[in-house]
Specification:
The protein is mostly helical. The protein contains 5 helices and no strands. The relative contact order is 0.14.
Amino acid sequence: MPPQSPPPAPAGYGAPPAPAQHGPIGKVRGTGACIGLTIITLGIYSLVWYYSVHEEMKRHTGQGVGGVVGLVLALFVGVVSPFLVASEVGRLYTRSGQQAPVSGATGLWYIPGFLILVGPIVWFVKTNGALNSYWRSQGAR
């Protein structure tokens, strides 16, 4: 009988993360077009956007809240959505070994910024831009 190698040691603190399993690539959405559609539809498109990006990220990584939960949160606890989306986008980058351009803290642009309207726009430009860049890095056009 040939000698057997010992089983691998469990990953401990500081061990490199397991290779990311990637599913389908998400859709690149033009930031200006999304803002325009949100204005034209009186905000309804933002709900479509929340559902779509959460669902795409969940299908791509197998992790995250998914489209239905993301939509429900946007409808009923909307204050959490900017933090959650930016956090999940940031995790896409870190799972791929890249520096995350956005994080949950990016949601801070949204909350106090809604009083002057510029904050949510800055949040959306940063978050949607980072998501689009990630999808392009994965091969999306």
